[in-house]
Amino acid sequence: MDESIRHHNPNPILRANPLSKLLFWWMNPLFKNGYERQLEVEDMYNVVNEDQSETLGNRLEEEWAKEVERTKGGKRQPSLFRALFRMFGFEYLLLGLILLLEEATKVIQPLLLGGLIRYFTPGSGVGKTESYLFAGGVSLCALVLAVTHHPYFFGVQRIGMKMRIACCSLLYRKSLRLSNEGLSKTTTGQIVNLLSNDVNRFDQAVIFLHFLWVGPLEAVAVLAILWHELGPSTLAGFAVLLLLVPVQGWMGKLFSKFRTKTAKYTDERVRLMNEIIAGMRVIKMYCWEKPFGDLVKKVRKSETNELHKILHMKAVWECISFFGRHICVVAMVITNVAANVPVTPEWVFVSMAIFNHIRKCCLRFMVAGVRGAIEGKVSMDRAQTFLQLSELPSTEHGRHEKDYSPAKNCRIVIENVHAKWDKEVDQLTLQNVSATVESGRLVSIIGPVGAGKSSLLMAVLNELPLLEGSISVTGRLAYVSQQPWVFSASLRQNIVFGNKYEKAKYDRILKACALNKDIAIMPHGDLTLIGDRGVSLSGGQRARVSLARALYMDADVYLLDDPLSAVDAAVGRHIFENVVQGYLKNKPRVLVTHQLQFLKEAEQILILKEGEMIGKGTFKELSMSGIDFSSLLKSDDEQTDKTASGHVTSTSGSHHLQRSMSHEPQSKLHESSRHRLHSTSSKSHEVINGNLRFSVHESMRGSELSLTSVGTIGDEFSAEEVQLPEEEERHQGTVGLSIYYEYFKAGAGIIKFLLLVFLCLAAQGAYILSDWWLSRWSNEEEARYSALERHNALLAEGYYATNITIPIVDTNFNVSVFSGIIGGVFLFGILRALMFFKVTVDASQALHNTMFASILRSHIGFFDTNPVGRILNRFSKDIGHMDDLLPVTFFDFTQCALLILGIVGVAGVVNPWVFIVVAPLIVLFVIIRRYYIRTSRHIKRLEGTTRSPVFSHLSASLQGLHTIRAFSVQGKFIEEFDNHQDLHTEAWFLFLTTSRWLAIRLDWLCAMFVAAVSFFCVVAADSLNAGLVGLSMTYAMTLMGMFQWGVRQSAEVENQMISVERVLDYSRLPSEAPLEAPNDRKPPPDWPQHGRISVQRVSLKYSTDTPTVLKNISFTIEAREKIGIVGRTGAGKSSLITMLFRLVEPTGSITIDDVDTLQIGLHDLRNQISIIPQDPVLFTGKLRRNLDPFSNHSDDALWKALGEVQLKNAVEDLPHGLDTEVSEGGINFSVGQRQLICLARAILRNNKILMIDEATANVDPRTDGLIQQTIREKFRKCTVLTIAHRLHTIMDSDRLLVLHDGEIEEFDAPHLLLQKPEGLLRKLVEQTGKTETTNLIEIARKSYENKNRDDINEEVQASNLAEIMRAISQHDVAMTIEELDELRMAESKEKEAENGTGDKEEDIEDAAEKVSREESETKDPVQDIGGKDEDLNVDVGEMDNGVKSVDGPTGETPVGDVDDEVESEEKSKLLADNGKKADDLDVDVGKVDENDEANETENLLSKDEHRK
User: Fold this and answer.
1) How would you label 1413-1440 residue by residue, b for 16+ Cβ within 10 Å and e otherwise?
2) How far apart are CA 1092 and CA 1081, in angstroms?
3) Quick check: pTM over 0.85?
């Protein structure tokens, strides 16, 4: 689908001749380009056919299918290894023959060296000519090694690459076929880890496997040769190697054990990071940085603990590998000394050279082979387990072309379906569901949250397995999911979805889906790239793109899972008329909806409750059967009002949609966190006394105007701007020394670093010293042995005495010194390795923690502009490199560098003539490395940037899995994945070939160095002895292979340090303000007490280069006020949340209860504001932890909160209650249940300020009503700010804040704002249609009148309080307190006896009589009036409350002002007790007119009595 990733640049290897392939000359043009400029994707060579992902994936899929088929019914499990071996085994075995030739050359070369050393031994008989021949033979072997080494390594690395590509392709294809049961047993993080880390081990595993059979074969050959040359002492050296074999096996098992544990913790960490990055906005607003940070640190610590164990074992092996040759030589020397066999330079250095090769082969390459085999097996087992997860059956309900039927014959037949997601529970997800959807018919499915609506569609899609019944689908299916799915590509690619682009059809669909104006303002039109998960689009845009995609597929049958919930009413009506009833009118359509205004237009309606179909029929049939639809619609208004056509309306609170359900048991939520993917049956919140009830006002909320974009779809339709994702930063140039400094600084202080340097130098010094001492000792032994031979020869000739001086050699001393030096080599070697690995792992852990802390503290804009995959790549691939590859590579490079310097130094000191050749070779080396490193760096960075899309595509595919399968476009997505893989393979292939290009040239330089040293030794024979020649030549031969490896490792270290550089980049992100303020700026502990918000001259912009979104706004919200926030798209509604939470720092002044929130810590602020977000976010882990991550509340408090949102019974029915595991993304709870859990969080926080961000946009009317009711009851003492998606939810607010273009357009009571003919709110309301406008105006009017009565009552109460305080100032305090107590007791009795309006009237009369009696007993008239008014006011207030409960717009009982009254009384009592005067209160007694207030109270009382 993404054509942008394809380019044409044929691979020159296809036309290269054999010599060019052998020497990699065909790479020269690329190196030239890379040296002159930065390489781009277009410069990479296309993948050859044998390396293509599609080709390899198809082959492996066939082989795996054979494996599965062969093992059916048998005990043997299918083996991924056997499948891979059939694909690559023969080619891999042939490469083993090349390795055998190379290893044979390595054995022959030391034997030729022995002949050269004999030339320097006195009396050996080797002439000058023969010495040149031996020198030439040694040089020729070096050239042969240079030629044979690289074809083998390039070949096996390429096979490893093919294995990885094939496995990735197979795993991706498997992920698209996973059933719900299979998905429940894995996670996105695990699948990403399989493709990013596990299969990558195949690249390394295959390199050294051949040494597992070549090594023993070579060892046997070497044993035979050395036995022939040296005799039985050879066995001593080989005995040491044999002793290491069981150790090798034991450590291999430990490697496997630790690697498995490490992979498990890595999976867990990557999964956690995926959730944290995706839910960062919620984490910041809830102040959950610390618990999530602790959780990640805990998992990371467990991971690094296992990593330490692995690296400790690697340290031991590196040490053994480092001085393994010396152990063998020591064993042979001691054996020879014990047997009185002379230690001569010839056999010492020949055996040393041979054992050097054996040591590499057996102790390095064989160990690497064993380790690679074990790690590869672990990875293969993990992949094999994944491949054996259950998958969907291959039948796809007639969606293939061969089953294609004309549209008139397309249909869905559902017959007596029973199904459930979890086989282990008894509760059915669907039961007794039957329906038929014919061509041209619309079937609507309604029901409460968790009723099984989405599950029914999943059953039609074959996602939900059936227990009974059948579902047949004739024709191709298209599916629009409830949560819109958009992938990272252009907008056009998201809609066309891999089909042929037809402009006329495309434009028609855009118009039908109201997308044309949105596209018009996008930077690049419909070719604009949108970010991961469609982050740059709004929810409404994503929904319309998802719908447009379904239309463009031109399918036969359409399943629409509530696609209208994310768009506003005007757009929803447009889509319903132009798409559901327009574009698709001749096709079978199933529409799941919560918006009841569309039901009348459906040919059939299905009502689901707890998975069971409780009603089916037409609108008319269901209405006649007792389900009262007629009260929900007014047909007369519909016919005359096109704009409001289809809107549900009602003006009273007495009508209900009702059906008897007394015979049905209440459903229970049994789904465990491991076995449920979709919304299933849950405890119904609609069951009231056995009946299913839909309140009119609750159902109406599904039809109210959403304000994400306002206006009709004509000229007034407001398009939404698109925020483009940022391109990933790509560094240029070399990795600076500062990166290395930061790396070692993170892992070690100055003392630890100096100690590491000392250990490295000490180990290398001991290494060279041991060889030099052995050379010196062997020369002494050679001289002594030669003198003894001449002496004995003269004695044999008959001489009785000779003048030959026989040197005295203290063998025991030499053995002791040599053994001590070898001990030093071992000690310094293992300490060096342990210290090095500790420093690197500590650095990796420290940098991970620093980056994680930086991510947690970074601005929210960072997560909006960077896709999840990009950020996650730093925590998965880059941290993986720092954990696994960088420590070993860096250590290997350090060791090689020290050895190379030692070798060149020793060779030069022994024979200064060597420096003549060394100088130009160094110049050539510097030129070649510099030429190489530029191109290598470009390619490595290209490899990194081309790797990210592979995992982004994988992640996006898993998110949209059901949509992909519904559309039967798995093949297209597999093709897309293969294209991404091929692009990455292009970069990886160049990485391999450029490495070989460098290596073969460096090996040629080394071959020249070996030739120079060998011939210069012959030239300078007069000044050299056998020991020094053996030492310098052995070292020179060691340089062969080591030099190019060391240089390549230096480049590899630099490439891998890019991961450190990338991690450091994310460790330096701009940070938010401090979480906690200094003590002198901290708010009081009980702040805020009231919740009064004052905003003065505040402006907000998201970054310096973006426009201002809030422009110098000022407003004040009083304590406990309920504020609604409305406005067109882009008006700045969501920016208000950003401003108040300081997700972006605003300018100006924001105070809460007179505390400047811009001066305090972020947690000080955010902890005091609760929020219910639009998209409910749950995190993996226990439900308890999702509610209360800090464990601040008791279980009783948690259960109480769940009970208040009516989830208590549902959670109690779960097997583990509060300890139930929430699966990834919270998918084992329905969307509505997730929203209720978020509401429970807000209740637990119990803050004075609550913000609601369109929290009910995606839930059904019943859940909407539940949320609104709970908010009114639980947050009545709070200041509540609600961003409106449905106007009905905010029309009874105290005031509405109407925003336009970042400025406050209007701010007043809704009723007053609606009186302005040209007001913005009036226009927004009128756009809902005549009927709905009338309804909304009536709600606002009634709310305004009720609140006005409350305000009058408050004024009367204040007047009464003033009178009482005046009486206090003039009369006996004790008597007044006694009167107040009597009034309070009377009020309490009245409340307890209150049973209805009639009771209230009697209570008022009793209270009035009591006041009269008290009045007659009181002498002071002022006091009498105050007491009477006080008492009357209480009763009037109560009466008003009763009236409100009848006439209120929502049928709910609003809270009166009892709290305020009690507060006033308590304040009066307190002041009276303290003997204070009335003027201490904030009430100006002098301004109160007693007579006026008394008259006003009597008038209000008479009005209320008249109303009753």
Assistant:
1) ebeeebeeeebbbbbbbbbbbbbbbbbb
2) 19
3) no
